[in-house]
Amino acid sequence: MKPVLDELKIFTGNSHPALANSVCEYLDIPLGQAEVFKFANDNTFVRIQENVRQRDVFIIQPTSFPVNDNLMELLIMIDACKRASAGRITAVIPYYGYGRTDKKDQPRVPITARLVADLLTAAGADRVLTVDLHAGQIQGFFNIPVDELTALPILADYFEKKEIRDLVVVAVDIGISKKARDVADRLHAPLAIIEKRRVGNNEITETMNVIGDVEGKVALTFDDEIATGGTIVNAATALAEHGVTEVFCCVTHPVLSGMAPQLMAKSNFSEIVVSDTIPVPPEKRNGKIKVLSVAPLLGEAIFRIHKGLSVGEMFN
Known about the structure:
The chain is an alpha/beta fold. The protein is 29% helix and 27% strand.
């Protein structure tokens, strides 16, 4: 272990141990030892197996599927570290589950993203580190510091190296257009937007219109996550109908729920580039999916937080 990091401890639950190990490799420190499992009665048990008294503790745990199990593991791990007198506890949540439920858009519905923020704070988290929140206002749900990183430079650099001619970046809905604009600026490409309408609460969308000049161009669709895949596949179909010659896809969070892997395999996309904020098991990789690691991004941010350096300077 580097002497400068001897007070730094990183732990993980069962959500994404591969990512936690990669972060530790970047920092050249060992992964902290902890038991995290379920009893026969479905209760989660956690035991931190090394001294964390007055240490700077980081717990890496994306709250992806199974969302509730992974969230409870994170909360219990935070509580265990707090009761073991950790000096500071940072919840590193590469993918923030329930992030889509960030406002009351119907009568008598919860704001679950705020509830999760309250739970994390009540459990004892002193800080949160996350990647590409679904909605920026989620940062304001916390009364503790929140550092939001972005995987956009990693995704954009991958496509910049391809040197694609006549490229147009396409935001798959108006809500993601600002981040898509950042990708377009990095790639020195124009931006187009797909206007869509969501139908009910069953994640079915109806693609409405393509705003921008895409005919005869190579399209790169961008969104923050792929859930069922319906939105992004409909976008590819709409772009093909508007005369694009080829379609690529880049997304930060590969949720890939239900039949999404099969749907993406049959889509018009030449390649689907995602990050590893969520684990992508072999059975979900269909030959089109390319996974880029955010471990160096998280590792550098953890180092900067530990040393009291600016996290924002990483993106200057």
